[in-house]
Amino acid sequence: MIIPARFNGPPASGNGGYSAGVFAGDSTREVTLRMPPPLDTQLTPADGKIQTPDGAIVAELGAPVAITVAVPPIGYADAADAATRYSGFAEHPFPTCYVCGPERTDGLRIFPGTLEDGTTAAPWTVPEDVSQPVVWAALDCPGGWAVIQAGRPYVLGRIAVRVARVPEPGERCVVRGALAETEGRKASVHTTLYGQDGEEVARARATWIAIAR
């Protein structure tokens, strides 16, 4: 398996959600990232681990997990309004991120703005090349932006996703994110993806880790 360079999060490594989606395949196994996923590098699964050619462990696959929390839906227009308040427009630790980077014209361009209750929301028009890993990617950053603050960046550490269906190309979806709790450098978040008909498409739970700027 290979994470192509266009699916980056930080400039030199894979977007955490997309990479975890590649590693998990069609399963609901929880994926723990042990190092930034390298780009354009042949990675090998072995005994529940994803390894580089020199044996470094990129990720570990855990058991399938139940994801019991869904962030409540809101309308597409309300999500679009929230996106105008996306704090990543003013300051972004990784502005070329495939999912939420404002400098990417060829990315998902999901810009989760914060609502009054602290949750995030963003509209998302599904791209032609949508896949299960792309759905994982769409569920990644909106949770992170529920905890990211100016001068305090976070990266994905662990994620589990349940996909009910892969949305159709061109479908207008809404992505929601919410902070569950924080403990030291760790933050637990939930995200939910809703389709054009307002029905749930996928949900995730994740752990984000604060890093030095």
Layout of SSEs?
Elements lengths: L15 H9 L4 E5 L10 E3 L2 E3 L5 E8 L11 H8 L29 E2 L5 E6 L6 H7 L2 H4 L9 E10 L8 E12 L2 E9 L5 E11 L3
Helix pairs in contact: 1-3
Note down, in words, how this protein is organized.
With 213 residues, the protein is of the alpha+beta class. It has a single domain (5-210), classed as Hotdog Thioesterase (Thiol Ester Dehydrase, Chain A, Roll). It is built from four helices and ten strands; from the N terminus they run αββββαββααββββ. The model has no long low-confidence stretch (mean pLDDT 95).
Q: How many beta-strand segments?
A: 10
Main beta sheet strand tally, sense and closure: 10 strands, antiparallel
Can you tell me the CATH class?
Alpha Beta
Shape assignment: globular
Which stretches are low in confidence, meaning pLDDT under 50 for 5 or more residues running?
A: none
Strand order of the largest sheet: 2-3-4-1-7-10-9-8-6-5
Gyration radius, in Å: 16 Å
Q: Top keywords for this entry?
A:
Thiol Ester Dehydrase, Chain A; alpha+beta; 213 residues; 10 strands; globular; 32% strand; single chain; ten-stranded antiparallel beta sheet
Summarize the structure.
This protein has helices spanning 16-24, 76-83, 132-138, 141-144, and strands spanning 29-33, 44-46, 49-51, 57-64, 113-114, 120-125, 154-163, 172-183, 186-194, 200-210. By secondary structure, it is α+β, with helices and mostly antiparallel strands.
